[in-house]
Structure formats: C-alpha cells, structure tokens
Amino acid sequence: MSRRALNCAVVPVVAAFTVMYGGSPAQAEEIPKAPGHRLISHYDGSPAAAVPLPGEALPQHPHLAPNGRSGMHSDAAGSATVPWSGPLGKNLQVTSEKIAALGGECATATFDAGGRLVTVCGTFSGFKVKLLEPRTLATLAEYQLPQRSSAVEAITSLDFAKIFKDTSGGPYFYLDDQDRAVLADSRQHILRLAHSWTPDESGGSWKFTVDDDWDLTGQVPHDCVTWTNLRPSGTCDPVTSVMPDWDGRIWWVTRQGRVGTVDPATSQIRSVRLPGEEIQNSFSVAEDGVSIVSDHALYGFRAAADGTPEVQWRQTYDRGTAAKPGSVNQGSGTTPDLFGNGYVAITDNADDRMNVLVYKRGTDVPADRRLVCKVPVFGSGASTTDNSLITWGNSIVVENNHGYENPTTLLLGKSVVGGVTRIDVRADGSGCHTVWESAIRAPSVVPKLSTANGLLYFYEKEPNFWGIDGWYLTAVDFRTGERRWRQLTGTGPLYDNNWAPITLGPDGTAYVGVFNGIIAVRDS
C-alpha cells in the first residue's frame, strides 16, 4: 500500500475515534523489543472456535462496574472470569504503549461505559491513573499519585526488591458503578476519581477530578519514608487494597493487618487490627460478607451497625517456615475466590508442595467441617503462587509462580518450572479431584478465563538456549488443558509482565501490563 493510500485509510479511523472517544488522543509510543525478536516463533497453534461454558453468571455487585470491567480480579467474587470472548487466535495483531522511560507498568485495567481503559501505571515518580484509548492505547488523561515510600527506599538503598514486594499505593483499585476509580494512595488516603470530557477552545479534553478524599491517617500509622523524611522514627503502614461491600461501605486493608471501613455518606471511619498478621493481597466480597486472607489465616468479616469490621469466622492454614521464591511474604499468595455453593478457595504456603484449599464460608459451619478439600499441586520443592485463582462453577484453576521474583530473574533465556492445574469440587461437596495438569510456564501473570469462548489466557515464557527472552500470550482450552495457540508479544525484560494481570476487554482484546507499559492483542 502506498503512503498516500495508507494515510487515506488512517483518516476515517481517526475520525471514528474522535466521534467515539472525543478529541484526538496523544500519539502512543511502542515498547522497544530486544534483539532476537525475528529469530523465534511468532505464532504457534491454530485459531480456536468459541465454545461457551455452561453455568450461571455471577451476581452483579451493586456498587461496582459491570462484572469483567471493575478490577484486577474481574468482579467482587475474585473469579478472574469475563462473560465475553477474548481473542480466538485469528491473524492476531499486537500493539503496545510505552508509559515511561523506566518502568511504566500498568498493573490493573478496568473499562468505563464507553470502553475506555482506566488503569494505574507505575513509575519511579509515583503511580499515574490513566485513561487510555482502547485501540491505540494513547493516553487521553492522567492523574498523578504521590510517590510510594518503597520507591524512595529503593532509590536511596539501591535495593529495588523493595518496590517489587510492595502491593500498596494504588494497583488494587476498583471502578465503581459510576465509572469512578476508587483507590488508596501512599498518603493513606482513599480517593474517588471521576473522569469527564471538558470542552475548551481547541475542542476539549478528558480530565480526572477528585470527587472524594478520605483521610485514614487517624486510624493508620503514617510516619513513612519520603524525600523530606528519610529517617522516620515512627511506623508506616501502607494501605494495600480497597473494595465496597453490598451496602456501599468502602473496606480497606493495610500491610500490617488493619481492616477498616469508610461510610461514603458520613465519612465515618472504623477499623480493627489483626495483631502480628500481614495483608498483602486484595480481598473479595459477596452479599454474605467480606473474605480476607492474611499471612496466617482466612477470615470472614461483616460490618457492625457503626461500620466496625467484625470477624465472623477464622481459619488458619499451613503458612510454612519461610517465604518461597515467587511469594511476596510467608503466607497465602491468593486473593480469596468466592464460588459454587458458598465456597471460598485460597492456597497455602506449605513447605514442600502448596495446597489448594476449599472451605465453606457460612457463619453456621462448625470449625471441623469448614474444610471441603486440600489438594497438593505442582512438584516437590517447587510449588507456590502469588496470583489469584480462577473459579467458574465448581472448577478452580491454579498457576505455579515458583522461582519468579522480578524482571531480572528470567533474563538471558531463563524461565520458571511452571505448571497449571484444574481442580473441581465434587457435585455433592464431598471433596475435590484434579481434572488436568499442564506444563504451561506463566511466571507471574494473573490469568483470565473467557466463559463465552471456553479459553484460559496466560502470559508465557519458555527457556531459550540462545538467551532470547520471548513473551507470549497463550490460550488454553479450559475443558482439556490443551494449549490452542500462542502469540509472541515482544522480546526482552520490557515485555515482562512482572505480576500484572491479563485483562480481557469487552471488545475482545487481551491487554497485559508489562514492565514498560501495556500491550494489546486482538483478532484482526
């Protein structure tokens, strides 16, 4: 195609974007690829046919954006499923946006009612809340969040593991039922950010505005490292995650085991503490309560009349004797999954082989009958996960992250031992059984399942003798565990997802946050 023909083809596309999304988005910059990109396979397998999965749709949370659009784990239950199709593998196109010169990973992607991405991207200067155009990935608007203490500590000590072990400051945000991003920043404030189109003399632009700002520092220690406070004498307790309950209260948790609520109507804040326990994961919510896992135990919570969190039940698990390579701390690495007939699933941190644990979550369940099953997964001495499970119906899918620490771990063609397993709870609730096991190597991704096409999506890296670091979006048949296809997205550490999730957009695109920004893979 000639340059003139190409320009003519582009004009109507840009015009369409202007109508759909308002204004002309800023030009996106592609993430650079490392040498060797042309020397490895770009596509393996063949396109899949969509075969929808039977089963009932999950309840829609009244205070969240529609299921599949609202957060890292897709919905209030943490299922990591979406009700629409992801890519089927037909003439796949890969696009990317470089967010920053160093860093820029977009950890969580959500979708507003117009299909635009609302995401939080990390840089050394602090996280940025971004509004992205879904096809080109160009930035439409952004809101700067304050720098995290871990970034200051990493720079001053040259210990960048501090950043990779920090889950606070905004990555675990959610999109509410009015398309507002709700998050806890590094100042221990909960923000509710709206975005809107603002007309001006040049046509107009998108902007973020703060609708609400709740200060938690009256409940949370906040003597944190900053550039003006390099040697704090007090305690700093970062806020890890936020989620609303069915009544609209905003729940929050901190790294040092505080669990709290904010009443948006009155701004009343209440909290309790789990002494000696740490919370590094997000949490899940159902109409019957809030499920939170610490590095010691799984909890069922409800709020008292004044909003104070109250423990309904507590279940300890095997936390092992130390954190494993591929774990943030010495405890479960999973956000609780709420599924099936009142079940909740997590993994433990048992020393030899990690176990998938399924419990009944009712308040009337006797302690000695709460455990439904305990299933060891993956190989001896090489078994851990720090990502959410996938649940659909009575099925659970778990991924092995053992050996992954950060983007330096897998340089020069290295990979992890890997493994993916599907486990089903028996129909009568009498236990569980393993359905299939796969050798897929997904070092650190939060995987997803499309219930509309029956495909699981992983972000895969295999060992390479020549030291080429190729990263692939991989589709696996949920029913059989067979890899259907995989598509190369890029080469080198800038394409490492570094714990970020796959997110399936409502238009069928698969998005992956990577170290230098975000990529998109779609059928053409």
β-strand number? 34
Q: What separation lies between the terminal Cα atoms?
A: 18 Å
Number of continuous helical runs? 3
> Could you report the average pLDDT, rounded to the nearest whole number?
92
Overall, the morphology is: globular
Structural class: mainly beta
The amount of beta strand, in percent, is 35-45%
> Which strands sit side by side, in order, in the main sheet?
1-31-30-29-28-2
Rg from C-alpha positions? 22 Å
Binned, the helix content reads under 10%
Report the uncertain regions: 1-24
Largest sheet, in brief, is: 6 strands, mixed
Write the layout of secondary structure elements.
Elements: H1 3-21, E1 43-45, E2 81-82, E3 93-98, E4 103-111, E5 117-123, E6 128-132, E7 139-144, H2 149-157, H3 161-164, E8 174-175, E9 181-184, E10 189-198, E11 205-215, E12 239-244, E13 250-254, E14 258-262, E15 269-273, E16 284-286, E17 289-293, E18 297-303, E19 309-316, E20 337-339, E21 343-347, E22 355-360, E23 371-376, E24 390-392, E25 395-399, E26 420-425, E27 432-438, E28 448-450, E29 455-460, E30 470-477, E31 483-491, E32 502-504, E33 510-514, E34 517-522
Parallel strand pairs: 2-28
Antiparallel strand pairs: 1-31, 3-34, 4-5, 5-6, 6-7, 8-9, 9-10, 10-11, 12-13, 13-14, 14-15, 16-17, 17-18, 18-19, 20-21, 21-22, 22-23, 24-25, 25-26, 26-27, 28-29, 29-30, 30-31, 32-33, 33-34
